[in-house]
From TrEMBL:
Protein's recorded name: Haloalkane dehalogenase
AB hydrolase-1 domain span: 144-383
Organism: Theobroma cacao
Any single Pfam family the record assigns to this protein: Abhydrolase_1
Record's keyword terms, sorted: Hydrolase
Coiled-coil regions listed in the entry: none
Tree of life domain: Eukaryota
GO terms of molecular function: hydrolase activity
Length: 402
């Protein structure tokens, strides 16, 4: 259980001890043993409203403080029981939901992959179209810049970039399906988290939010997905900016910090741990020192619902299986003479996951601009958000003025 003011590590440690105990029961895993404490601490759920993308649609609500009975059924934390303000509440209030990409599957109720029990509403696919959480800033009449977070992360990683871009552009940062506040359907119940699905899902989202040309900024391991989308829609892009993308054969293997989420059973367990899924994944790859207020935002999806962990487990398996082929294809696309999109690579030199070897040569041979950032790591926008915002703004403005 995550209680305001107490570090989640206390809960995680307590849970892992219970998990391996011979007397551990399903009721513990599904929050049952926390019911009395939850009733005592949670007097009423705190319901936050998110802006609508269409004024004719009903208002969307997101239960932040929900009792176990209203939760997802499978959550190691059972939800956050506190009436006090939380940094993630403020971030959520800034955003809105956009509906894009049709839901697949048979329409059956999703069940957890461990016990096969039906999960709550937060782990079910939307009725017809997925909900994407995004934060938008700037003048809607200006050129649109879409900021795409890496794996694993959230739109929140661009919080320092948005204000810089909003001065001259319409900037949009969104959560991928399975991350942050966006829909997180269980695998095989509407979305399987394959990289091919992410390509088509991105197309749906971009078409929904931006009918005209856009500039795309993408960080990390989702870069091959975005490049594949871009290769099919070059006419749609003004330019493409890649932040520490996997460009070489050495980059095609996930680091152990991420690949562990794809392991059988162990992956399901570790992906439910907010300290492994957010804190460690974001801080082990560079100099980024996470503040507690920011950590609370990144941990929130994992503390509120088990669906975030299961989505992380699914995308980790897809990445482990498909990343090599996508990286190779991305390299071919970026070096092909038919590639007409103005491309810039920004590289944080202190990346502990992706080496700098061959990056300079590849950019030079493909005639793509390379910008080195000596003080940044893998999550460039976290380490130097305002600086990268200025770089993005400058790159786009030069392109637009031509």
């Amino acid at each position: 259980m995550a209680i305001q003011g107490k570090p989640p590590s206390l809960f995680c440690h307590q849970f892992q001890c219970s998990l391996y105990s011979p007397t551990a029961s399903k009721s513990l895993l599904f929050g049952g043993s926390f019911q009395s404490r939850a009733q005592h601490l949670c007097r009423k759920p705190l319901r936050l409203s998110c802006s609508r993308s269409n004024a004719n649609e009903p208002q969307d609500d997101y239960l932040i403080d929900a009792p176990v009975s209203a939760g997802d059924g499978f959550s190691f934390s059972g939800g956050k029981y506190s009436d006090e303000a939380n940094p993630s509440d403020e971030w959520f209030k800034q955003g809105k939901y956009v509906k894009a990409h049709p839901v697949g599957g048979t329409g059956e109720k999703a069940k957890d992959p461990i016990f096969g029990l039906t999960m709550g509403a937060g782990s079910q696919a939307s009725g017809d179209v997925f909900r994407w959480f995004c934060v938008e800033s700037g003048n809607a009449d200006n050129h649109t810049v879409i900021l795409i977070h890496g794996f694993p992360s959230q739109a929140y990683s661009y919080r320092k970039v948005l204000p810089v871009l909003s001065k001259n552009y319409r900037a949009i940062a969104f959560d991928w399906l399975g991350f942050g506040f966006s829909d997180k359907p269980q695998p095989r119940y509407g979305f399987d988290y394959s990289l091919g699905e992410y390509v088509s899902a991105l197309e749906s989202f971009v078409n929904e939010v931006a009918p005209n040309k856009v500039s795309l900024v993408v960080q990390g391991y989702f870069s091959p997905v975005v490049v594949k989308y871009a290769s099919k829609h070059q006419e749609k892009l003004n330019d493409l900016i890649l932040l520490n993308p996997p460009l070489t054969a050495k980059h095609a293997n996930l680091p152990s910090t991420l690949s562990i989420f794809s392991n059988f059973l162990l992956g399901e367990i570790f992906s439910q741990d907010p300290l492994r899924a957010s804190d460690k994944a974001l801080t082990s790859c560079g100099p980024y020192a996470m503040k507690e207020d920011d950590a609370m935002v990144y941990r929130r999806p994992y503390l509120t619902s088990g669906s975030s962990g299961f989505a992380l487990n699914a995308i980790s398996r897809a990445m482990k299986k498909e990343l090599k082929a996508y990286v190779e294809e991305m390299k071919v696309i970026l070096m092909d003479k038919s590639w007409k999109v103005q491309t810039t690579v920004c590289w944080g030199q202190r990346d502990r996951w992706l080496s700098y070897d061959q990056v300079e040569d590849l950019c030079e041979s493909s005639n793509h601009k390379l910008i080195d950032l000596p003080m940044a790591g893998h999550h460039v926008q976290e380490d130097c958000g305002e600086e990268i915002g200025g770089i993005i703004s400058g790159v786009i403005s030069r392109r637009i003025l031509r």
